[in-house]
Amino acid sequence: MIGRVLKSTGSWYEVAGEDTLRYACRARGKLRLEGYKESNPIAVGDQVQFEPLGKEGIITEILPRQNHMLRQSVKRTGHASVLAANLNQVLVLATLKQPRTSLGFIDRVLVSAESFRIPQVIVFNKKDLLTADEVAELDELTQLYQHIGATVLIISAQHDAEVETVQLQLQGKVTLVAGHSGVGKSTLLNRLLPGLKLATGAISDYSEKGTHTTTFAEMFQVNENTFIIDTPGIKEWGLVDMEPQEISDYFPEMRNLRLSCRFGSRCLHLNEPKCAVLDAVEQGTIAASRYNSYISMATGEDTRQ
Ligand SMILES: Nc1nc2c(ncn2[C@@H]2O[C@H](COP(=O)(O)OP(=O)(O)O)[C@@H](O)[C@H]2O)c(=O)[nH]1
Ligand SMILES: [Mg+2]
Ligand SMILES: [Zn+2]
What we know:
Blueprint: E1 2-8, E2 13-17, E3 22-27, E4 47-53, E5 56-62, E6 68-72, E7 80-85, E8 89-95, H1 103-115, E9 120-125, H2 132-147, E10 151-154, H3 160-170, E11 174-178, H4 185-192, H5 202-211, E12 218-223, E13 226-230, H6 244-247, H7 252-255, H8 276-283, H9 288-298
Parallel strand pairs: 3-5, 8-9, 8-11, 9-10, 11-13
Antiparallel strand pairs: 1-2, 1-4, 2-3, 4-5, 6-7, 12-13
Helix pairs in contact: 1-9
This protein binds guanosine-5'-diphosphate, magnesium ion and zinc ion.
């Protein structure tokens, strides 16, 4: 039978079979997709072939991946691990206040997704808290991010009609959800998945940290072909294995300009002469916030943002 991996503990895998039943599976022998060196051979989102035995099963094959996202290994062994596979989009949940999400964090997730050619969605939550000035700021951010190809939604997770716009954006897709603690991820997921009942609020964050020593991505099924992958506690949005020279390739507004830099593909756009990216920043066609994010990624500062 073919199935989809919803959850992995490293030795057991929860698999949704094509018969819609759930199976607790183990892997047969040393399964590994060819060409992957990551520490976990089977990831959330993987399509697998398995032999069902009652409510359990044995995974015999991992089907080829359409794509995947990486994260730095928890144990920092130098190896990355596959965070999730076969994604249709990555969604960053962000807030302008309570707490304020740094643009650096948003940009890091976008760049990470872009490097795997995965479409990006930004959902700004807690709209109900915003003053008129903050609404204006959010309008500017919306234009900035739409301009570089992201889909932007502005919602309050407490309002059904607005949660529905997120539901429409998710429909029929597999979506990885990223967001810092406190932005309303559990609130939103509970709305999208009645019956899930994730704890919300400050106390829940404390107890979540207390009960989970390691963090794993986990996939939830919204309906027949709609899936959400939660990434609790994952902070190191990995620019895994990325050379400084390649980072600007994942900033869509910089990607094409580099051909015009005097040093071409060797230009890091930091202080090189005749740099087309620096010129664009000066002229305002590249946003200062995006360029700042770029510098921190290219120079390796602030890697935990
Ligand atoms: N005002 C307001 N509060 C919200 C909204 N969404 C979530 N919250 C609150 O923000 C706090 C953190 O939410 P939670 O879902 O636990 O965040 P998580 O840490 O991202 O899972 C809780 O007290 C929620 O009730 C919203 O749209 N507006
Ligand atoms: Mg939460
Ligand atoms: Zn340059």
